[in-house]
């Protein structure tokens, strides 16, 4: 197999050397070039055609987020952010993921000297993400806000790699009085809190990080907190349950979907969005067998068609839709009479 070719972008010569050293310690990765600015990186992308780019946030001439937005619009490619500003799930990290970055890595510090240990693995994951063409203009949002009448159902959504973009696309199409909605996105602690806050600013419904015992209310979307707890539901509330990783993840989409199948049954609507691996596929199948309506994101609009593919292979999803269509499909299914 050919090695993964990486372009390293950072205005600090020392940091470029550290990133290069961390990546080249893995025999499957080759640093094809390094750039000290966005303008230099732009030229090297054309010359080198790298598989993955690592990108700093704070740079002269053009900051990393502005450059990321331009790259994703004009020449989409897998990007891993490497910055002190992406520490602790900050708003900067969520912004980068929303713009299309695959992942974020914190620069080493006295408090976290081994942060680059995970960099090669994250670059390898990024290399498996397909290069996407710029998204088409979204379809007009449905006219639900004034006339939508929620039923007595619950929507459950699972997502992973590329999920921040996908959740924004889906949930911003929900009406303010949507049915209670529970979401598990694979993310570490603190990231999920900032994700919920960002979605809350962007969406018509209220978006909260889920807490144990929180009642499932109309007009509210609950995001599973990252950490060592799984989000589950009873018939009326959110439950945070301890447990080890399931399918390599905590929180796990399977744990959420399986609880929805048990507690909500035919009153549920489920969707599995972009992500690597199989988490959520078995749970979505259990939801369908319990009488729920079930959907998956299609391959063309998925950053990684792993979890949705697994759902389709199991027969867990009734239909698969593009990212622009799946939000309205969920809302329509939740309003339909059982």
Automatic annotation (TrEMBL):
UniProt GO MF annotations: phosphorelay response regulator activity; protein-glutamate methylesterase activity; protein-glutamine glutaminase activity
Domain of life (superkingdom): Bacteria
Subcellular location: Cytoplasm
Post-translational modification (record): Phosphorylated by CheA. Phosphorylation of the N-terminal regulatory domain activates the methylesterase activity.
One GO process term, biological-process aspect: chemotaxis
Active-site residues, record numbering mapped to chain: 160, 186, 279
Keyword Phosphoprotein: yes
GO cellular component, one term: cytoplasm
Ranges in a coiled coil: none
Catalytic activities: L-glutaminyl-[protein] + H2O = L-glutamyl-[protein] + NH4(+); [protein]-L-glutamate 5-O-methyl ester + H2O = L-glutamyl-[protein] + methanol + H(+)
Response regulatory domain: residues covered: 5-122
Every CheB-type methylesterase domain range: 148-337
Swiss-Prot/TrEMBL domain comment: Contains a C-terminal catalytic domain, and an N-terminal region which modulates catalytic activity.
Physiological role: Involved in chemotaxis. Part of a chemotaxis signal transduction system that modulates chemotaxis in response to various stimuli. Catalyzes the demethylation of specific methylglutamate residues introduced into the chemoreceptors (methyl-accepting chemotaxis proteins or MCP) by CheR. Also mediates the irreversible deamidation of specific glutamine residues to glutamic acid.
Family according to the record: Belongs to the CheB family.
HAMAP family: CheB_chemtxs
Protein name (database record): Protein-glutamate methylesterase/protein-glutamine glutaminase
Organism listed in the record: Aestuariivirga litoralis
